[in-house]
């Protein structure tokens, strides 16, 4: 439920919210150039400062357009106050001289009056004082159009509960006026962030009309205060998500306690199997309540008591103690990860032991001995020690040398790494934990090979895995690239299914995912998300203030990834929910594919058998399943399959 700040935090599948340094101080030039409003821009002092400015403002551009869209969305749900609307409609007609120009003093006084109406957030400004195609600029970007500016200001005001804007000083120059101001507001978000800033606005006057032709804002935002306000939702969201998901767990717990089967399953699932499934699900539900409560306590303590910064410093001290250089970021990161992995194993071990040797054993699933459990645990740690350092080192070096194309390099590295791991895992890693043997010659093998041939599936190998040595749960899956596909059946599935047709129907479902390109679509989606996540990370990796807000004086790559992951907890849950919806749709399509091949009846029987074997939940709460399940509940799948079609030739 919660985001655990452990070794998993360094994985590339991060989801994040970005914050950035947005302080801007006045920088008046000693020489004032006359402005003709012809689209010219002042030249920069150096190309390096220009590059720094472009990099610094990248996030602000995102923030600007996001706030503009958010304001437009808000305008559909709320309307401006009557006073704001009336004030904006009472536009002042300014007097002109014989040449048609407006006296500058009159325009200045009008601007000062607009400040009194907080025109930044109300949109109530005197239109006569501005050129219709006036350019409006701020640190995030610029655009032309008086009406667009007025609309943006009005919409932004809908996101604010209270605001205060005061003109503190006015300066007149040859071709412009500068208004210094102080602004504060309370945003209309659930956590009520209070934002405040000082700044100044440059008003450039057109030579001919006397109106404002350029309106350039400069914001000086207190960085730490802003970050603390913006980070409130990401920190609080962890708690809010725990409360929300606990509510869903309670709904599911109530559904599990129902003493009767769903109508669809009556006559399909025996009462004995239902009672066993109900008892197993309730045991797991009770266990989940305890596990998640302890997890949220640990995560909250890590976050709010600055455990990570302390752990980072201690890992550096350990390096010095053993004679290594703590300034070497790779060594420092690996020492930090080693400590985090030890902590993670210590905190997770009691729950793993109880789940395996109490709950799973109580319901007849656990088949492994204590020796086998700790042997697998040791193998996993050894793999982490073997594979972790080169991967982490590569990521750090890429971030340090990546430059402007960092997101592309990180994505490319993870793309290649995922292909390598998908290739090596079934060949080198999976056999360390299970034994894979070819499916013996016989009727079942012939039927599967015939189905694969009919669908032009490039089946190269067909394996049986000894899942029964650890658990009586069952499954089937396929893997492999291009023309080198393999299918794996759990021996428990073969032992417990009544006939071969049920197993072949399950395989037909899996092949449906391949035939309908679900695997490819999912892989592409993961790659897109990975690239976007790394793109978001590049926006915050150099933000000193963001690191300091989490208690870090330095900016290590790994810590940046962890902070980035935590800061986007809301987005993580939204993306996960969306992916579940897509996955559920894919499952229905694969079921329909198997039914179209004539395996509808066998698939129904096979799904029921899998449900019985695994003692999966028979009664599910619709909210809980929609949020958590990547596969639809059995009731929905059986209803969708309906009556089977005739078998395809």
UniProtKB/TrEMBL annotation:
<dbReference type="Pfam" id="PF01435">
    <property type="entry name" value="Peptidase_M48"/>
</dbReference>
<feature type="region of interest" description="Disordered">
    <location>
        <begin position="34"/>
        <end position="53"/>
    </location>
</feature>
<dbReference type="Pfam" id="PF10184">
    <property type="entry name" value="DUF2358"/>
</dbReference>
<dbReference type="InterPro" id="IPR001915">
    <property type="entry name" value="Peptidase_M48"/>
</dbReference>
<dbReference type="InterPro" id="IPR018790">
    <property type="entry name" value="DUF2358"/>
</dbReference>
<dbReference type="Pfam" id="PF16491">
    <property type="entry name" value="Peptidase_M48_N"/>
</dbReference>
<feature type="transmembrane region" description="Helical">
    <location>
        <begin position="333"/>
        <end position="357"/>
    </location>
</feature>
<feature type="domain" description="CAAX prenyl protease 1 N-terminal">
    <location>
        <begin position="252"/>
        <end position="435"/>
    </location>
</feature>
<feature type="transmembrane region" description="Helical">
    <location>
        <begin position="406"/>
        <end position="428"/>
    </location>
</feature>
<feature type="binding site">
    <location>
        <position position="513"/>
    </location>
    <ligand>
        <name>Zn(2+)</name>
    </ligand>
</feature>
<dbReference type="GO" id="GO:0004222">
    <property type="term" value="F:metalloendopeptidase activity"/>
</dbReference>
<keyword id="KW-0645">Protease</keyword>
<keyword id="KW-0862">Zinc</keyword>
<dbReference type="InterPro" id="IPR027057">
    <property type="entry name" value="CAXX_Prtase_1"/>
</dbReference>
<feature type="transmembrane region" description="Helical">
    <location>
        <begin position="377"/>
        <end position="399"/>
    </location>
</feature>
<dbReference type="GO" id="GO:0046872">
    <property type="term" value="F:metal ion binding"/>
</dbReference>
<keyword id="KW-0256">Endoplasmic reticulum</keyword>
<keyword id="KW-1133">Transmembrane helix</keyword>
<feature type="transmembrane region" description="Helical">
    <location>
        <begin position="520"/>
        <end position="540"/>
    </location>
</feature>
<keyword id="KW-0482">Metalloprotease</keyword>
<keyword id="KW-0472">Membrane</keyword>
<protein>
    <recommendedName>
        <fullName>CAAX prenyl protease 1 homolog</fullName>
        <ecNumber>3.4.24.84</ecNumber>
    </recommendedName>
</protein>
<feature type="transmembrane region" description="Helical">
    <location>
        <begin position="293"/>
        <end position="312"/>
    </location>
</feature>
<keyword id="KW-0812">Transmembrane</keyword>
<feature type="binding site">
    <location>
        <position position="509"/>
    </location>
    <ligand>
        <name>Zn(2+)</name>
    </ligand>
</feature>
<comment type="similarity">
    <text>Belongs to the peptidase M48A family.</text>
</comment>
<dbReference type="GO" id="GO:0071586">
    <property type="term" value="P:CAAX-box protein processing"/>
</dbReference>
<dbReference type="InterPro" id="IPR032710">
    <property type="entry name" value="NTF2-like_dom_sf"/>
</dbReference>
<feature type="active site">
    <location>
        <position position="510"/>
    </location>
</feature>
<feature type="binding site">
    <location>
        <position position="587"/>
    </location>
    <ligand>
        <name>Zn(2+)</name>
    </ligand>
</feature>
<dbReference type="GO" id="GO:0005789">
    <property type="term" value="C:endoplasmic reticulum membrane"/>
</dbReference>
<keyword id="KW-0479">Metal-binding</keyword>
<keyword id="KW-0378">Hydrolase</keyword>
<dbReference type="InterPro" id="IPR032456">
    <property type="entry name" value="Peptidase_M48_N"/>
</dbReference>
<feature type="active site" description="Proton donor">
    <location>
        <position position="591"/>
    </location>
</feature>
<feature type="domain" description="Peptidase M48">
    <location>
        <begin position="438"/>
        <end position="643"/>
    </location>
</feature>
């Amino acid at each position: 439920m919660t985001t655990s700040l452990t070794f998993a935090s360094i994985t590339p599948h991060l989801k994040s919210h970005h914050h950035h340094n947005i302080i801007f101080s006045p920088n008046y030039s000693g020489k004032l150039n006359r402005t003709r409003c012809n689209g010219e821009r002042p030249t920069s002092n150096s190309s390096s400062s220009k590059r720094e400015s472009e990099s610094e403002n990248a996030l602000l551009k995102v923030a600007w357009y996001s706030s503009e869209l958010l304001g437009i969305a808000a305008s559909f749900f709320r309307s401006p106050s009557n006073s704001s609307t009336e004030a904006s409609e009472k536009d002042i007609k300014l007097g002109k001289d014989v040449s048609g120009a407006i006296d500058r003093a009159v325009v200045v006084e009008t601007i000062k009056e607009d400040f009194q109406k907080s025109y930044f957030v109300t949109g109530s400004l005197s239109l006569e004082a501005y050129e219709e195609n006036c350019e409006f600029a701020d640190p995030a970007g610029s655009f032309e159009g008086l009406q667009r500016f007025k609309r943006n200001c009005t919409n932004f005001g809908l996101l604010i509960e209270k605001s205060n804007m005061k003109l503190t000083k006015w300066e007149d120059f040859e071709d412009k006026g500068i208004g210094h101001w102080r602004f504060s507001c309370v945003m209309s978000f659930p956590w009520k962030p209070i934002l405040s800033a000082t700044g100044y606005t440059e008003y450039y006057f057109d030579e001919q009309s006397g109106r404002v032709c350029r309106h350039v804002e400069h914001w000086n935002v207190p960085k730490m205060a802003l970050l603390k306000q913006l980070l409130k939702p990401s920190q609080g969201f962890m708690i809010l998500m725990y409360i929300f998901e606990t509510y869903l767990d309670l709904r599911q717990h109530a559904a599990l306690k129902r003493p009767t089967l769903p109508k669809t399953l009556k006559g399909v699932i025996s009462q004995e199997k239902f009672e066993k499934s109900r008892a197993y699900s309730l045991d797991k539900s009770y266990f989940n309540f305890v596990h998640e409560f302890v997890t949220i306590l640990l995560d909250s303590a890590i976050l709010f008591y600055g455990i990570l910064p302390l752990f980072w410093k201690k890992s550096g001290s350990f390096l010095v103690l053993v004679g290594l250089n703590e300034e070497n970021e790779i060594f420092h990161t690996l020492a930090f990860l080693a400590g985090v992995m030890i902590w993670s194993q210590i905190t997770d071990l009691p729950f793993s032991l109880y789940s395996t040797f109490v709950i799973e054993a109580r319901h007849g699933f656990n088949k492994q001995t204590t020796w086998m459990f700790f042997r697998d645990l040791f193998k996993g740690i050894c793999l982490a020690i073997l594979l972790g350092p080169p991967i982490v080192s590569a990521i750090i070096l890429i971030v340090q040398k990546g430059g402007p194309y960092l997101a592309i390099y990180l994505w490319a590295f993870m793309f290649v790494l995922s292909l390598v791991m998908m290739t090596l895992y079934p060949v080198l890693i999976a056999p360390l934990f299970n034994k894979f043997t070819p499916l013996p010659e016989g009727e079942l093998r012939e039927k599967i090979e015939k189905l694969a041939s009919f669908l032009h599936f490039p089946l190269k190998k067909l394996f049986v895995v000894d899942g029964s040595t650890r658990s009586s749960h069952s499954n089937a899956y396929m893997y492999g690239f291009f023309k080198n596909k393999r299918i794996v059946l759990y021996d428990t599935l073969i032992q417990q299914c009544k006939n071969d047709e049920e197993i072949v129907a399950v395989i037909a479902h899996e092949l449906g995912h391949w035939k309908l390109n679900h695997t490819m679509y999912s892989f592409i989606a993961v790659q897109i998300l990975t690239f976007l996540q790394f793109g978001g990370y590049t926006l915050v990796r150099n933000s000193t203030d963001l690191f300091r807000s989490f208690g870090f004086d330095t900016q290590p790559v790994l810590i940046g990834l962890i902070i980035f992951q935590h800061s986007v907890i809301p987005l993580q849950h939204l993306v996960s929910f969306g992916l579940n919806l897509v996955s559920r749709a894919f499952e229905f399509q694969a079921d329909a594919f198997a039914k179209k091949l004539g395996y509808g009846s066998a698939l129904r029987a096979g799904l029921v058998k899998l449900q019985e074997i695994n003692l999966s939940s028979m009664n599910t709460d619709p909210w809980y399943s929609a949020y958590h399940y990547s596969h639809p509940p059995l009731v929905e799948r059986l209803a969708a399959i309906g009556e089977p079609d005739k078998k395809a030739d």
